[in-house]
Design brief:
By secondary structure, this protein is an alpha+beta fold. Helix content is 24%, strand content 29%. The chain has a six-stranded antiparallel β-sheet, with no helix packed on it. It is globular.
């Protein structure tokens, strides 16, 4: 199947990057703000909470494991999700928007559950503490 990589830009408040390999080992990196001086990036390694095979099958069922053309007039603002999925020795780039909309949006929950809840909670707590220090308020 090959490793799978998902990236997400979170409504201008941060960016996360998730990588899952064939052995169901995951790495999540999270940057809670625009990247730059003084902005941390946190990293966690973990056993994938649920099998990624169901997500892989859904990507195939939705015909996303092929060359997709990005929309030329993508919306501005809000979160976006992209993916580079390696399957059968080939990497497929899934853009945030195509002519049919946001192809990964219906799969967001399936992507998120790959990461154990304790990892998401830890990153959320760190993000809140970062925002308090940097901006004087929580997101």
């Amino acid at each position: 199947m090959g490793s799978r990589l998902f990236s997400h830009l979170e409504k201008f408040l941060g960016e996360w990057r998730l990588e899952v390999d064939d052995a169901q080992q995951g790495i999540l990196e999270y940057t809670p703000d625009y990247p730059g001086p003084g902005v941390p990036t946190w990293r966690a390694q973990f056993d994938v909470a649920v099998t990624a095979n169901d997500l892989y099958a859904e990507l195939r069922r939705r015909d996303l494991l092929r060359d997709l053309d990005a929309a030329s007039d993508a919306p501005v603002g809000g979160g976006i999700e992209t993916a580079a999925v390696t399957a059968e020795g080939r990497t497929h780039e899934i853009p945030p928007f195509t002519g049919d909309g946001a192809p990964l949006a219906p799969l967001e929950r399936q992507i998120h559950v790959l990461v154990p809840g304790r990892v998401w909670r830890d990153f959320e707590e760190r993000r809140e503490a970062y925002a308090e220090r940097r901006y004087g308020e929580s997101p």
